[in-house]
Amino acid sequence: MRALVIGEVNANGIKQTAASLVNAAVKAAGVADMFLLGQAQAACDEAKTFAGVEKVFVNPDSGENILSESLSKAVVALVKEHGYSHVFFEASSIGKSVMPRVAALLDVAPLSDVTAVVDAHTFVRPIFAGSIDVTLKDAEPVVVASVRATAFDPCEKTGSAEVVMYQGMPETMKTRKVSFEAVKTDRPALQSARIVVAGGRGLEDEEGFKKLAQLADRLGAAIGATRAVVDMGLCPNDWQVGQTGKIIAPDLYIAIGISGAMQHIAGIKDAKVVVAINNDPEAPIFEVADYGLVMDAKAGIDALLKELN
Ligand SMILES: Cc1cc2nc3c(=O)[nH]c(=O)nc-3n(C[C@H](O)[C@H](O)[C@H](O)COP(=O)(O)OP(=O)(O)OC[C@H]3O[C@@H](n4cnc5c(N)ncnc54)[C@H](O)[C@@H]3O)c2cc1C
């Protein structure tokens, strides 16, 4: 058995989560190769060191302008050429777009959001917004899966894989990318931040979110939000944490004015320490919080900032 791991690359090199993805793949198949989506030298240098990885495929045409339709064909070509038993994607927006296409082209059923590997064909994944974990047998000839990287530790960096140039990217005639606009922020990325401060409806208004930003800046934290405040237009969509937002696993999650609906909690199940500030002592968030402060959200932020300063 041998897995193909799809490694995403960003401006700083390979995504931090890639090492966790490799760990999951090696647990399932014993050994893995990587296909890097992008050609940054730093990404390649790091991917080479991932324990369990034997080959790193680099394609000069697989950068940010490439479409899912082309990528999926390239991945399928690699699977057919090398006979991979497993293809693992991160459960990211790229993974969610390319993984089902690859499964369809290989005529197998895809498996999404894997959170544990039991053996080569047995996996655990959450259902019903994370309230139940199911264990599934995947009997397909090729296991095509997306993996929640936050559920796995990163692999060791003791490897020395061979780098292989993989030339050519299948064309797609029907669509082409017209432009690509990355959101620029000085804050850490939500999905890899060690500390996340998040706001909900209890922060009430723009003033509340300005205070939240001050706290985030003071702590060097990323900012998260509930769907309710995203829908209210108080913060951008990419801040949303939860079932239909981002799944995160920071060391510290500070939830301010957030009720703790199960769809929100689905996104922070792997957070190590949860702190909640809410003026309702009965709020469900306190059931999952390690530390709770029953007080007004804005006053709570002011008190924290005073202590920190
Ligand atoms: C299919 C589906 C998917 C969903 N996906 C997501 C998702 O991905 N992420 C997500 O977050 N939600 C999601 N939701 C919505 C979710 O069900 C909740 O509605 C949402 O999380 C509630 O957001 P909230 O906690 O900000 O608001 P509320 O539930 O209104 O809670 C506000 C909290 O603030 C407290 N509060 C009020 N005033 C103050 C104050 N002055 N000081 C301190 N505390 C105060 C209140 O006591 C309350 O606990 C989804 C819903 C559905 C149906």
Main β-sheet, in a few words?
A: 8 strands, mixed
Count the DSSP helices: 9
Q: Please name the fourth-level CATH homologous superfamily of the largest domain.
A: HUPs
Please state the overall shape, judged from the principal axes of the Cα atoms: elongated
Indicate the proportion of strand residues. 25-35%
Task: Give start-end ranges of low-pLDDT stretches.
Answer: none
Structural class: alpha/beta
CATH topology of the largest domain: Rossmann fold
What is the CATH architecture descriptor of the largest domain? 3-Layer(aba) Sandwich
**Level of helix content?**
25-40%
What is the end-to-end distance? 55 Å
Ligands bound here? Answer: flavin-adenine dinucleotide
- Mean of residue pLDDT? 93
Q: What is the name of the CATH class of the largest domain?
A: Alpha Beta
Number of strands: 16
Order of helices and strands: EEHEHEHEHEEEEEEEHEHEHEHEH
Alpha carbon gyration radius: 21 Å
Count of domains: 2
Report on this structure:
This protein is 28% helix and 26% strand. It is of the alpha/beta class and 309 residues long. The protein has two domains: 3-165, HUPs (Rossmann fold); 195-308, TPP-binding domain (Rossmann fold, 3-Layer(aba) Sandwich). The radius of gyration is 21 Å and the shape is elongated. The mean pLDDT is 93. The structure holds flavin-adenine dinucleotide. The site of flavin-adenine dinucleotide has 26 residues, from helix 6 and helix 7.
